[in-house]
Amino acid sequence: MVSPYLVHIDDVQPENMQKDKGWAISEFRLPVTGAHGSSTTIFHSIFRPGSTHAKHKHDRCDEIAVYLKGHGIVGQSDQRTQVGPGHCRLMPAGTPHFFHNETKDTDGMCIGFYMGAKSVPDTGYGFCGQVNDADLQMPRGKTLTEGTLLHVSTVEPLKLSAADGWQISEYRMPIGKHTGSPNAQFWMKLAPGDMLHKHRFDNCEVLYYVNSGEGVAGAGGKTSRIRAGHTHFIPRGVEQFIANTGKDTLEVIGVYTGAGSIADGGYVHTGKVSAAELTAA
To answer: What percent of the chain has pLDDT over 70?
Structure first.
């Protein structure tokens, strides 16, 4: 039986990627992979000023990336545009793409998901060429028309029922069934005291990254304290919850593997979180 897996990014060893294959990334970590029972891999990338992940593609999976810090230029086939904190992007399988941090003094950071791929080789990774000055000087559009690129602030929050366990301040789904994706990407905010009560997803895995704040998360009967930098993999059918026990907003970014919406994920509310469960971590 596959068990939930929780790890902080600081406890994950950076990967030694090949620069001649396009991996001129300052820091690249894989907190969740198939080795942990997941069908999807989470990656965490840091780009120092001027660094680039060169043109590449993943022939066997879609890639979802969420940009959290810094600003840069992205390429998708023959299109170019700029991204910054809050941009959410889906790169379809088999399409060449790149990212370049063009800022002078700010690191770029993104969290991402290789949907349905258990490792980097499992994605069907292929190096497509270096990024040159001509690539960076191409005209930049407002967005990309291949795949999906949008800013989370432009996405209307979903209206979710507190009676079904959604005692949270804000929930947005930038990518999902409504954008043509078989997998959903969500961005959830919990104010102090908020919680997503006990529930399970019978049809999908849940993978998420804690972007800010702190709280308590439960999965499979185990309760743990979480803070910014934690990643969590929860297999399908496993009861779970998340609560903000801190003083600041708890911000969580994640995906439903194999489900384009909450309903398609087989969401089932299973009960309220008790005070004892919150103090058990």
So the answer is: 100
Q: Is the CB of residue 74 less than 8 Å from the CB of residue 136?
A: no
**Tell me, what's the pLDDT at 227?**
98
Compute the C-alpha angle 241/35/38, nearest 5°: 40
Q: Give the 3-state secondary structure of residue 79.
A: strand
- For the residues 121-129, what does the mean pLDDT come to? 96
**pLDDT the model gives residue 24:** 82
Q: Do the beta carbons of residue 42 and residue 209 sit within 8 Å?
A: yes
Report how far residue 35's alpha carbon sits from residue 143's, in angstroms, rounded to the nearest whole number.
35
> In 3-state terms, what secondary structure has residue 192?
coil
Q: Look up the pTM and report it.
A: 0.97
The DSSP result for 25-54, as a single string, is -SEEEEEE-GGGT-SSEEEEEEE-TT-EEE
Q: Which of 208, 225, 172 is nearest to 44 (CA)?
A: 208
